[in-house]
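Hey, resending since the last one bounced:
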Amino acid sequence: MTAVKERRPVAVVTGGAKGIGAAICDALIADGYWVAAVDIATTAKQDHLEGYVADISDLAALIATLEKIEAEHGLVRVLVNNAGILSSKTLFELTPETFDRTVAINLRPVIFASQHVARRLIAEDRPGSIVNVASSAGRFGSIWPDYGTSKAGVIGATLSLAKALADKQIRVNAVAPGQVVTDMNAEMSPEQRAINSARIGMKRPADPSEIADVVAFLAGDRASFVTGSVVDANGGRF
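The structure tokens again:
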């Protein structure tokens, strides 16, 4: 008799094409998930992963993409809201348009992707997990007000979503990385990277896999009684 392959639970990672997002995809695959990487860029193909191209600042396109994933692969059990942009506009350079663009990518999709996935889980009476990638900038502030504000909003959204969904057995947590070796980090000036590194107790930036491992823990059953938590994965910012 031929053994029937068990279907992997479905996880969605926004911003999954590279950097922290790609590392999160790898960690979730290693933990037994089938992963949909939603990104404005094309995602490299691999086993148990499929890329979906979408601009998540367009909420209609984001929801349509989630519906397509569900139609093709089944109920989304884990959502990782990871996608984000780094604005490098100081207070007096900032415009309303720049601010709105940052919030449209870093914060709004966290609420509305979570709303969609939670509705489907509740309708099927299934538990689930949502993990949001925030930032130390949301904890300590940033010289770029729109970025820091958007990431503080992600932390606030995490706490509010956790309260709204706890009795539905849908857990919501966040990870707040510090400096991480990614393309986004490379956009900073060498001087700013040096300032950030000096604030880290461990005196080095994180590898994306170190953040991904925290996300995978929060997403999975090992964190079955953890919700409304924000884990600082920043190497010790004192």
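DSSP finds nine helices and seven strands in the chain.

Sorry for the duplicate.
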